[in-house]
What we know:
alpha/beta, 3 domains, 26 strands, 25% strand, binds zinc ion
Amino acid sequence: MNSLYKDFLVITPIHKPGVRILFDTRETCSLVANSGIVGFCLLGLALEFELIQREYAKKMKIQFLGAAGEVTGSRHLVELLLNGKTRHFMVDYGMFQGGREATNKNLGVMPIPPKELDFVVLTHAHIDHSGLLPRLCAQGFKGPIYCTTATYELLKILLPDSAHLQSADLERAERKIKQGKWRGEIPVVLYSREEVEMTLAQIEPLEYGQVINLNPKIQLEFRNAGHILGSAIAVLDIQEDGKQKKRCVFSGDIGMKGKVLMPDPDFISAADVVVVESTYGDRLHRSLSETESELVEVISTTMSAHGNVIIPAFAVGRTQEMLFLLMDLVRKSKLPHLSIWVDSPMATAATHLTQHFFSQLDVQSQATFSWFKNNPDSLDLRFIADVEESKSLNKIKGGAIIISASGMCDAGRIVHHLFNNLPRKQNAIIITGFQAYGSLGRRLVDKVQKVRLFGEDVPVKASVHTIGGLSAHADQAGLLEWLRGFTLPPKITFVVHGEPESASVFAQCIREDLGWKNVIIPERLQIYEC
Length: 530
Ligand SMILES: [Zn+2]
């Protein structure tokens, strides 16, 4: 009975692809332990059975459930032996974003029953790192979720909004279906508002630099990642059975040194295992001054042509950065008085929260925000609260800068603004953030002639500008500089959170520039011993 393996049975109703139900065979289904993959009919329901076999931990393992070969769906499952028992914890539990394939992955099943997880360590609040936590909790995870205090405050805004967007998208699709106007996939609701509340109750907020014992064998410390408010690098010191103490560092998303709003990322001097992001591992960002010049050029030209400027922006981080930059450009007299509308309740709340955590911002941003406080008439800055007010923006045909979410244009009020502003050539769309493959934002960046919004074809007549220097992520040089903070090469380095080209180029840079030998680009769902 001392088998090194345990079995899980996955049941997939064939008429509902993507829906998978997991049973631990020790409890429920030992009869089929040797059945492999079997398909048959039971009580008239077509079901497909698949047996997953996992080795019990002898040595620590990491399984990369997402952000492997792509930039969304960050979740890393760690398995190890503590006091003779196999234990599991998760670092991040993010949503996959961008198209139908992402939806199927979001509906996918965990390789172990969620109730077997001891805890979750969350690096930051972005939905691609946190967005499926309510689903995990609804599926049986009852343990603590550790994150920084600011991340917790942001999650109180982001997760309810995510649940709301999902149900609103479905309701809209159902209305359109009734009218015979809907084409394409029907949106999926991954979790409810109640499940979000349940998740928030499981959060244990921590401060940066606070070292806590998650259990007698694992210590956690969050260090500042400089990416968005509350973003952290997770430093875990682990004492496995029969092994030397091991330090695992999960970078989360690393911020750009010298960027606006956030301070520079903290360096970590030692680690045995490093999991590092590589979103921009294959390129260098433009300088801030070049970015400012481009912004001034596009905004000035569009305002002269009496057009609108539409800026899709992540509600958390990017919106506040844009506000800071626009404020700063007005302060430096590079732009005239502007009319700016922030049309995202979540961005409004996140902006208030940014003011609340004022002391966590970088010094220059603190100075600019203080200047605006003393010169409130320098900008006409309005935060839109209700939907009717948002709809009234449709009537503005020129002279407005509208900042709205979601950042990749796939959901939220930005879709309405694009629906109204894409067909007019005097308008400009400014893309300021990363656009994942398959997202509407990516298609705009790729200069498509028309897009399908709300089940209707919309011509893209507005000009689309990509301004690259605003990234919340470090570029190749920034990531390498952060890795240089480790005084000795880690025993193993995993390169995640990058599209294949980016991860591959960056892994090669680590090998060549830093001379680190054991650098791996993990494949999704593969298990790696460390
Ligand atoms: Zn992020």
